[in-house]
């Protein structure tokens, strides 16, 4: 079962050049969803267990849209471009480890795995100590 439709990608596109080939778009959506399922085992079961319209499904759609958009915005996988015309130069640098590639960012992966950043503590006091749980 696909989470994302081609209209999700086209509807979230910013600027000109939205993909018009829905067959190619759906092919890349399928690839992105397979990559997510490979990198986040059990995600389909977690999505199926949640009520429709919950955060995990919507987050998965957002991640698929981002992955596919990166591919369509930079299909050649170029890291940087420069254009010089007389005294004027423009450049564009694409970020990420694999520009234009179908990949998950660390942030996207953490969102799908349900990880939240932040500090935590680990007690070094053994549970049998009289000071366990102190102060309470």
Going by helix content, strand content and strand pairing, the class is mainly alpha
Which regions contain 5 or more consecutive residues with pLDDT less than 50? none
> What gap, in angstroms, lies between the N and C termini?
48 Å
Q: Measured on Cα atoms, how large is the radius of gyration?
A: 21 Å
Mean pLDDT: 85
Strand content: 5-15%
H/E element order: HHHHEEH
Q: Into which percent range does the helicity of residues fall?
A: 40-55%
Structural shape: flat
Count the E strands.
2
Largest sheet: 2 strands, antiparallel
Question: How many helical elements?
Answer: 5
- Number of self-contained structural domains: 1
Strand order of the largest sheet: 1-2
Describe the structure.
- There is one protein chain.
- The protein contains 5 helices and 2 strands, in the order H-H-H-H-E-E-H.
- The chain has a two-stranded antiparallel ribbon with strand order 1-2.
- With 136 residues, the protein is mainly α.
- The mean pLDDT is 85.
- The protein starts with 5 loop residues before the first helix and ends in a 23-residue tail after the last helix.
- It has one domain (6-113).
- The chain has helices at 6-12, 22-39, 43-49, 55-73, 106-113, and strands at residues 80-85, 88-93.
């Amino acid at each position: 079962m696909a989470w994302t439709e081609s209209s999700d990608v086209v509807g979230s596109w910013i600027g000109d050049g939205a993909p018009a080939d829905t067959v190619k778009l759906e092919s890349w959506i399928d690839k992105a969803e397979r990559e997510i399922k490979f990198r986040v085992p059990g995600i389909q079961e977690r999505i199926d267990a949640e009520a429709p319209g919950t955060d995990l499904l919507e987050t998965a759609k957002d991640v698929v849209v981002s992955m596919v958009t990166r591919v369509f915005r930079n299909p050649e996988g170029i890291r940087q471009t420069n254009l010089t015309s007389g005294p004027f130069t423009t450049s564009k640098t694409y970020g990420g480890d694999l520009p234009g590639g179908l990949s998950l960012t660390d942030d996207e992966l953490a969102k799908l795995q349900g990880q939240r950043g932040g500090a935590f503590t680990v007690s070094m006091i053994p549970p049998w100590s009289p000071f366990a749980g102190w102060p309470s």
